[in-house]
Structures are given as structure tokens and as C-alpha cells.
Amino acid sequence: MADFLLSRTIVCIHNCLLSSAEIDQIRKSKEIDKSLEQEKTFVKKLVKILLLGAGESGKSTFLKQMRIIYGQDFDQRAKEEYRDTIYSNVIKGVRVLVDAREKLHIPWGDPENQVHGETMMAFDTRSSIMAKGMVETKVFLNYLPSIRALWQDSGIQNAYDRRREFQLGESVKYFLDNVDKLGQLDYLPSQKDILLARKPTKVIHEYDFEIESVPFKMVDVGGQRSERKRWFEWFETVTSILFLVSSSEYDQVLMEDRQTNRLTESLSIFETIVNNRVFASVSIILFLNKTDLLEEKVKNVNIKDYFPEFTGDPHNLPDVQKFLVDCFRNKRRQSQEEPLYHHFTTAINTENIRLVFSDVKDTILHHNIKGFFCPNY
Length: 377
Hints:
By secondary structure, the protein is of the alpha/beta class. It folds into two domains: 193 residues, 3-Layer(aba) Sandwich (Rossmann fold); 121 residues, GI Alpha 1, domain 2-like (Orthogonal Bundle). The chain has 15 helices and six strands. It has a six-stranded mixed beta sheet with strand order 2-3-1-4-5-6, sandwiched between helices. Helix 4 packs parallel to helix 7, helix 4 crosses helix 8 and helix 5 runs antiparallel to helix 7. 29% of the residues are buried.
């Protein structure tokens, strides 16, 4: 008891000798120390996930789904921005189809639509707003009559049927089939519209969310060749990599060089990532995306024409999917004890992504942060 009183007396004398400014400084210092300690704990717990893969594999769509699923839906301003992006997607898509019809020497269904085609090709793509991938409502409405007429033309439809021979956004048909809805003055995109809106990732997008008190940071760093040099900036402290592949693109070539097979490009990128020593302790999970498009494509397009080593039934979806998984599994140069975790996904299907990511979350936490939920961690 005497020692306790002596200690309190010393503290009291010490505080009395300190000025109020010095006391305040000590208090602030303790608050900073506490904040830093909390930050260290947060960093230890933070699950940092990189979305990697070639361009148009569905990374941005997946990130949108995380936002929808984990409680941060799109507000009025975001919907207006996506509306302008959708208008841009439609105008660019129609221009591609008009140009393809001419280059493929497909005749017009109605020769009078030549005028509408010329109207679309005269659109100023160099305008500052179009360069950002956005078109205002009033501009879009001016071109709406031409867009309607062209999409109904059999020549444009024939060009669309041969879309494998040129570069066309996968969502163009959906938006053109719903062009009357897009032309309404009060149109705002639905969740599905937003998920299908296409805008190349030119800047790094991050999304922070929390699951069962566990903080997650998901990062989309872009997949076009020009963007990949920035991937390495994000490799430090990464917990897991979700590698996305467009499983339906085995018969298509890259937009960047118009020669390289898109699936071959994805395999090459995956080989670099999966064999990198930096990721020796990082879980790499393969998402074979766009299953809905693959299911339709295998009915008509023989994968053996592009990958002669395929030995199954080219029109059987499970056979084609097994071949795709084997292609990626074989890119691991050294035998690894752990299996290659993979999922077949459709990124525009919210329920599918909800279920898949629930499994992925468990895989990540189990293999990468053991003891995560231990109170003394």
C-alpha cells in the first residue's frame, strides 16, 4: 500500500511539473501509438485480392458484383455515368458492324440504310467526351433512328453472325435488342445493364468490403497489354490472386494485335504468374468465366480447329471445360501438392458470383491466413 501511494505521489509531482502543453503532447503521442497498433492489426488481418487476367476476361464485372453483393449499390450519379458508357458502347458497336459489313462485302438488306450507315460512320469519335467512353443522352437520341434502322437490317445481322472475324463487344447485342428502353428520356441502367456496360480499365480500381469482421481489399489493375506493366506494383502483401479467363474466346484473337489467340494469351499470362516465386505462398484461384457464352459456342464452333490437341467431343460442354482446366494446370512447371483451385463462372450472374465467392473466401482464409479467427492472433 505504501509503495502504491508513493508511486501515485511521484506521478502527481511529475504531472504538476509539466505544463498543460506538455501533458497534451504526451496524450496525443499515446493516441498515435494506439492508432498505429490498431493499424498494424488491421494490416495483419487485411485480405488483399488481386484480379488478374487478359483484357475482357470479366475482372471489372466481377468487381461490380462485389459492390452489389456486399452492400454498396450504385447511386444516381453512378447510374448516370454508366448510362453514358452504355450509349458509347452502342454507338461504337454499330460503327463496328457497319464497317464489318462493308469489309466482308455483305450487301444491305435495304439499300436505303446506306445513309444511316454513313451517318454512324461520320460520328466524331475524337470528341473529348467520346474519348472517355461516354456519350450524353441528347447526342445518343440524335442517332437513335439510324441505330434502330441498322440493327433491323439483314446485312448488319449477317455481319453480326460473323463477329468472330472482327472485334465486337459481347454486350452489344443485348443493348441493341433493348434499344427502345435505352431511348427513353428517363432511362437509368438496371443492375444487369451496369454489369454488361464495357469500359476498358485505364486506372486501378479498388473496392474495400468486410465479411464477418474480416476486411477485404479487391484490386482490378486492368488486363490490356499496356496496363500489365503496372501489375508488379501491387504484388507486395497480396493474399490471393483471382485469375480470370474468358473461357469462350478460344476462337478469337486479341484486339491489340489481331493475330494472337485470346486463350493462348491467357495461358501465357497464367504461366508467368503461377510460376513466379513471389507467389509461392499465395493462393492462385482460376476463374473460367463466361460459361454462358461457352455453352452456346460449343454448339457451333469446334475447339479442335484452334487447339488440335483436343481429344474429346468438341460439342460437349464438360469435355471442353475439362480440356481448358488441363491447359491451365499443365502450365505449372513444377509439380505442386495443392490442386489448382478453379471455378466456372458467369460474372454477369449475381447469384453465381455470390455462391462462388463464398467458396473462394473459405479457400483463401483456410490456406493463406490460418489462425485468422483466433482471438490472440
